Amino acid sequence: MGFLDTERAVLDALLPGLDAELARHRLADLERTGSPAVAAFREAGGAALLVPRQNTGIGADPLQAVRLQRAVGARCPSLAVATTMHHFSVASLVEAAKNGAGFEWMLLEAIVGKRMLLASGFSEGHTGQSILRPGIRAVRRGGEVVLNGSKKPCSLARSMDLLTASVVMTDEAGTERLGVAIVPADTPGVSVRPFWRSTVLAGAESEEVVLENVVLDPQMVVLTEVTADSVLDSLNVAGFLWFELLMTAGYLGTASALVERVLRQGRAPAAVRAALVTELDASMLAVEAVARTMGESPDRGEPLLVAALTARYAAQDAIARTTTAALEALGGMSFVGSDEGAYLASAAAGLNFHPPSRGRMAEQLCAVLDGGPLRVG
């Protein structure tokens, strides 16, 4: 088996034609604003990947999903980032449906039938702020819920059919609780503003989504048992698990695209080429180990999330080492002749900036080692 053959075989099996469609475009065209990649993903039926089969979806298990996401990241880093947010949102809906009132299942089937894409408005992008403190507030007014606030950056902002957003809402007892709001993109009061200025990952459509007096039916807001800065409940643990695994796999794919160029060039010593593959494949094996356990066990508790975070932070280090070494192995003329190598190295570094950051989690992870509960800040 060649490098990335396993991952591309999974992608071809679950989303036939997507890999070939992405491969026929130049990297620069896929990564620019207005990229054709999102439309190709929709056309290939990617919206249904994590929707259970009983709801007419593809029903990919966690191991299949992370392998597929590595393959996507190797073709189009922006698409891997954007679709991770969609998959994470769908997985959260599936988890919510286990104890929901029933509309979640109807929504999942609509996602498949209409090939709907979900943007994820969960809190991130605010330095020093807890990711459990959303930028969107929900208020009850009579028989309705009204949302105000914004999410930036928000991937798939231009192509979304639905926004799934974390909100803070005061319950009947006066306690602020976290919830998940499901907002159709065409709801009055929803708008998109330019936000992403970098050319790196511009194809992910990461803009600002603004909600101004957005009125929802109460059943479109699912309250959790989590209060800001508190221990996570099962819905949040499951969501974070999917997010960390899929995002890590996607960025490992981006770094793999750079290593693949070194392998095809064939000029670097065998020891260098083997070391590059070993670094990335070892990191992917860690991700796969967590994904396999996640798929085999119904208990998706804190220990598994700690394992996912461990794999993610280890992958960050492996990506940093391999992208630097791969650029050196490609040589100066390759660097001068094309900006693809430098672009892939820059894009792969993006994993460092997704929540929860290693710096904010260091104390919490040490507390877990001392027998305490996991808190995500």
UniProtKB/TrEMBL annotation:
InterPro entries assigned: Acyl-CoA_Oxase/DH_mid-dom, Acyl-CoA_Oxase/DH_mid-dom_sf, AcylCoA_DH/ox_N_sf, AcylCoA_DH/oxidase_NM_dom_sf
Organism: Streptomyces avidinii
Entry keyword set: FAD, Flavoprotein, Oxidoreductase
Domain Acyl-CoA oxidase/dehydrogenase middle: 121-214
Superkingdom of source: Bacteria
Pfam families: Acyl-CoA_dh_M
Protein name: Alkylation response protein AidB-like acyl-CoA dehydrogenase
SUPFAM superfamilies per record: Acyl-CoA dehydrogenase NM domain-like (SSF56645)
